[in-house]
Amino acid sequence: MNGIFFILRSGMPWADLPERYGPYTTVYNRFNRWQKAGVWGKLMDAVIAAYEVSGEKLQMIDSTSVRVHQQAAAPKN
User: Fold this and answer.
1) 14, burial (CB in 10 Å: exposed 0-12, middle 13-18, buried 19+)
2) What is the DSSP track for 24-39?
3) Backbone torsions φ then ψ of 57, nearest 5 degrees
4) Alpha-carbon gap, residue 2 to 8, rounded angstroms
């Protein structure tokens, strides 16, 4: 799971997965099989259900909608 999370977090191609996570084909195949089996949907449903039971409000942010301010990306002088 750490290899899958690393790829999803970094956005890098599967082939560039660091060796410490094992062969990238194995990690990709596991991710793909779990996607087809609905494992990720069940995992999200469980997270949502846990928050509903606790009475807390669940908020998620899609990182594709988060932008860094222009000055944060500029090199320091």
Assistant:
1) middle
2) HHHHHHHHHHHHHHTH
3) -90, 130
4) 10
**pTM value > 0.70:** no
State the DSSP string of 4-65: HHHHHHH---GGG--GGG--HHHHHHHHHHHHHHTHHHHHHHHHHHHHHHHTPPP----GGG
Task: Give 15's Cβ-side CA count (13 Å radius).
Answer: 0
Mean pLDDT, the chain cut into blocks of 10 residues (77 residues total): 90 93 96 95 87 73 60 57
Contacts 24+ apart (CB under 8 A), 50-57: none
In angstroms and rounded to an integer, the radius of gyration of the C-alpha atoms of the chain is 17
